[in-house]
Amino acid sequence: MLYLDANGLDLAQTLQCGQCFRWQPGPAGSWTGVVAGRAVRAEHAPGGRICLTGLAGPAPEAEPAFWVRYFALDLDYPALQARMQAAHKGLAGCIACAPGIRVLRQPFFETLITFLISQNNNIPRITGIVDRLCRGLGQPLEGEGRFFAFPTAERLAPLAEADLAFLRAGWRSGYILDAARRAAAGQLEEDALRAMPLAGARARLMEVRGVGPKVADCALLYGLGRWDAYPVDVWMRRAGQALFTRRVKDPAAYLNRKTGGCAGIAQQYIFAWARSTGLTEKTHKNPACD
After folding, report:
1. Where's the HhH-GPD domain (predicted)?
2. Pairing mode, if any, of strands 49-56 and 38-45?
3. Residues 272, 17: contact at Cβ < 8 Å?
């Protein structure tokens, strides 16, 4: 077992906020997930800690740095939240909805594929497709229970759409294969995407079939740790209209300027607020702004 200082991390808030799809809730507030060929059970422990128990793959206690990085425990989130609250008073109400959210550092290729699958889809169906993909084409992991790694780009690249019929993913199968072929050919090199200006990295990802601005920004934010990426969908457009005055024409640029390049992390709190309030009207107001 591995015990880590949670530093305010809330597992449920983090794992249920729409950024990942391979964690399942268990008894007594525990969660079971597979990350980069490692299956673990995560749960809160006394003393403000989280406990990770290895189920398959490398034992968590053998590589604490991996899990510190994955859960973003190396970032001073309380200080970051204070900076966000000082940057814009409405963010205080957003953060209060789910202060324990942390933006995970997920494997890039897996993140790109899962957000391609997520388009025009719901969480249960996304989770089902991802599970079938891993069970059907992922490497089995040795350990307690039956777990599978996410399939590599090299495993997927030679396949045809007919080979993915078992996923029941519809037109998304073509997107999956195009992304895999480009990644296997070295066209989506992670270090290069991290080093590029954000607009250039987004444009490179949008060369992949089916990748629009939102999926590109999700892959950058959740899969490459590009905290300056700011995914926008209908929820976020409405939230932006409610949270910011008309003078803020570009919420992403505004938040990056105010938070030192962490607009994507602020976005996660804004999204949590939008979901928790049932934001459906463009005129909905954040009480924290009143």
Report:
1. 117-275
2. antiparallel
3. yes
Tokens representing 93?
């109400």
- Collapse the DSSP code of 273 into the 3-class scheme (helix H, G, I; strand E, B; otherwise coil) and give the result: helix
How, if at all, do strands 2-5 and 140-141 pair?
unpaired
Q: What is the residue-wise DSSP string for 88-156?
A: -HHHHHHHHH-TT-------HHHHHHHHHHTTT--HHHHHHHHHHHHHHHSPEEPBSS-EEPPPPHHHH
Tokens matching residue 59? 């034992």
Q: What would the pLDDT profile of 247-288 be if each residue is shown by its tens digit? A: 888 889 999 998 999 999 999 999 999 888 776 444 333 333
pLDDT digits (tens, 9 = 90+) for 70-91: 999 999 999 999 999 988 888 9
Q: Identity (one letter) of the amino acid at 158? A: P
Spatial separation of the C-alpha atoms in residues 15 and 34, rounded to whole Å: 12
For residue 62, give the amino acid letter: A
The answer to whether the CB of 132 falls within 8 A of the CB of 27 is no
CA angle 105, 72, 58 (to 5 degrees): 70
Q: Please, are residues 169 and 121 in contact by the beta-carbon 8 Å criterion?
A: no
Chain position carrying tokens 């290069």: 192
CA distance 57 to 143: 7
> CB 171: neighbour CB atoms within 10 A?
10
Give the residue among 147, 150, 136, 152 at the shortest CA–CA distance from 56.
147
Radius of gyration (C-alpha) of the chain in whole angstroms:
19
Fill in the amino acid letter for 40: V
